Amino acid sequence: MSMQQTAAVLDRSQTDAAVAVRGVTKIYEGNVKALENMTLDFPRGQLTSLLGPSGCGKTTLLKIIAGLIPATGGEVLVNGRAVKGPGRDRAFVFQDFALMPWATVLRNVGFGLELRGVPQSEREAVSERYIKAVGLSGFEQSFPHQLSGGMRQRVGLARALAVDADVLLMDEPFSAVDEQNRRKFQEDMLALVEQEKKTFIFVTHSIEEAVYVSDKVAVLLPRPSRVSEVIEPKIDRSVSPDAMRRDPDYLDTVERIWTALRTYVE
Amino acid sequence: MHDVFTSKRFLKYFSFAIVFALWEIGGRIPISPAFPTFSATMVALWQMLMDGSMLQAYPETLQPLLIGVAIAATLGIAAGVWMGLSRFGEWLLSPVFIVAQAAPLAALIPLLVLAYGIGLTAKVMVVLIMAMPVIVLNAMSGVRSTNNSLIEMGTAFLGSRKDVITKIILPSASPVIFAGLRLGLSAGFIGAILSELLITPTGVGDLITFNQSRADYARMYAAIFSIIAVAVIALDFLEWIEVRWLRPDRKGAR
Ligand SMILES: Nc1ncnc2c1ncn2[C@@H]1O[C@H](COP(=O)(O)OP(=O)(O)OP(=O)(O)O)[C@@H](O)[C@H]1O
Ligand SMILES: [Mg+2]
């Protein structure tokens, strides 16, 4: 990491970070170094994307933040407290949905609340609200195999929203969705960030997607895994989605990230 | 119309009808003097139901069967789930069941008789040895095959180890566990009849051997037919329980 970048990171740590990753290293069994001394802040109430080629450790970082796997070194602070395991302050949206095939949409969405011991009537009321919020009204009694990939993804999203955590960890939430729906989801995503006032950490492969939905994009590179660049797309989101996608700032930012990644690809 | 003819139930009855028709034809040729027709067998079955010989035989046969299968199911699922959850459990127990599954039962029966006599205990043991390994090994592989990301999901949403086992691993393993139970139940039927044929002739086994010795082949076949029918009904019932209580999502698939 260059001096300049270190300074930038220190500077940003002054602002309120919901999640702070401090020098995290992860070495898997067999000496696979997935992350090395990674430091990164996730500002409260904003959407930060983790963008990078396959195998650079995005899922690993997300799972460490979630407390699902321990870091080999360094620490993660969520609201200033060190992460020891999963907690009420974080909710995960899984890349492969992780829905229980034997449970209805209603039960799947309320499952986080069920595990917290929320009584059935109460958790069903909450679940119904979020099922509606993600546009799945009428599918409460359906089973996951009766839904399309995009709908399943929204069930996973509703489940994460229903537990009302401060931080939403989303692992490539739109990867199973076709291009048309993907755009629609991205727009919904922006509305969600606006309305939920939560901190979103969002993993994606798509540069356009990252620039479109994020307040901040962390570009990760593998071997050794590191944050190569942190970009804050300053795009005017008050205009229509289509106008936004033609905005020169938007196109410039996409180009800049592409340049950063291209050196790696080549 | 299309739906009726391709529905699962229709196909099932249709294949039964074909088998029974072939049986009738085979009996009329006749393939062998010891091979009665389907209709003669059904008449004999009716007579045996009416004269009380079936009513007397079934409780005798079902007693060791039900006791054995109940024990095999309880212990077998418990052992299999434990083996699925813990490498130590697998290391400790799996050789026992793999050997038991491969062992030729007929060779073990003299040993069982030596140890437990010729009463109910020995027959229960035969049923157990037949039914348990497949139940255990299925339960273990059912638990093992739980999607890891579902387990991670349970942990991420603050489920305890117990929550993860009861709400995720067991429901996810239940189809494989039930497949094991169905196989175990069929094996238990084989064990129950085998023990009646090889240890002491009682119940349905007695009906088979006694009528064979009298050369009353219609009655002998009726006894065999009845035990197969009971086994099929019992297996269907097990499947119904599974779909009804554990996997409502599979309702449409059947
Ligand atoms: N359980 C594990 N054991 C060993 N190595 C692992 C394990 N999980 C991941 N890795 C390795 O760690 C590295 C980073 O993996 P990770 O899944 O975090 O990448 P990713 O950035 O999410 O990739 P993708 O974009 O393809 O999802 C990879 O080289 C991978 O092979
Ligand atoms: Mg990944």
Automatic annotation (TrEMBL), chain A:
<dbReference type="InterPro" id="IPR017871">
    <property type="entry name" value="ABC_transporter-like_CS"/>
</dbReference>
<dbReference type="InterPro" id="IPR027417">
    <property type="entry name" value="P-loop_NTPase"/>
</dbReference>
<protein>
    <submittedName>
        <fullName>ABC transporter ATP-binding protein</fullName>
    </submittedName>
</protein>
<dbReference type="Pfam" id="PF00005">
    <property type="entry name" value="ABC_tran"/>
</dbReference>
<keyword id="KW-0813">Transport</keyword>
<keyword id="KW-0067">ATP-binding</keyword>
<comment type="similarity">
    <text>Belongs to the ABC transporter superfamily.</text>
</comment>
<dbReference type="InterPro" id="IPR003439">
    <property type="entry name" value="ABC_transporter-like_ATP-bd"/>
</dbReference>
<dbReference type="InterPro" id="IPR050166">
    <property type="entry name" value="ABC_transporter_ATP-bind"/>
</dbReference>
<keyword id="KW-0547">Nucleotide-binding</keyword>
<dbReference type="GO" id="GO:0005524">
    <property type="term" value="F:ATP binding"/>
</dbReference>
<dbReference type="InterPro" id="IPR003593">
    <property type="entry name" value="AAA+_ATPase"/>
</dbReference>
<feature type="domain" description="ABC transporter">
    <location>
        <begin position="19"/>
        <end position="247"/>
    </location>
</feature>
From TrEMBL, chain B:
<keyword id="KW-0812">Transmembrane</keyword>
<feature type="transmembrane region" description="Helical">
    <location>
        <begin position="65"/>
        <end position="85"/>
    </location>
</feature>
<feature type="transmembrane region" description="Helical">
    <location>
        <begin position="187"/>
        <end position="208"/>
    </location>
</feature>
<keyword id="KW-0813">Transport</keyword>
<dbReference type="InterPro" id="IPR035906">
    <property type="entry name" value="MetI-like_sf"/>
</dbReference>
<feature type="domain" description="ABC transmembrane type-1">
    <location>
        <begin position="58"/>
        <end position="239"/>
    </location>
</feature>
<keyword id="KW-0472">Membrane</keyword>
<comment type="similarity">
    <text>Belongs to the binding-protein-dependent transport system permease family.</text>
</comment>
<feature type="transmembrane region" description="Helical">
    <location>
        <begin position="92"/>
        <end position="118"/>
    </location>
</feature>
<dbReference type="InterPro" id="IPR000515">
    <property type="entry name" value="MetI-like"/>
</dbReference>
<protein>
    <submittedName>
        <fullName>ABC transporter permease</fullName>
    </submittedName>
</protein>
<feature type="transmembrane region" description="Helical">
    <location>
        <begin position="124"/>
        <end position="143"/>
    </location>
</feature>
<keyword id="KW-1003">Cell membrane</keyword>
<dbReference type="Pfam" id="PF00528">
    <property type="entry name" value="BPD_transp_1"/>
</dbReference>
<keyword id="KW-1133">Transmembrane helix</keyword>
<feature type="transmembrane region" description="Helical">
    <location>
        <begin position="220"/>
        <end position="241"/>
    </location>
</feature>
<feature type="transmembrane region" description="Helical">
    <location>
        <begin position="12"/>
        <end position="45"/>
    </location>
</feature>
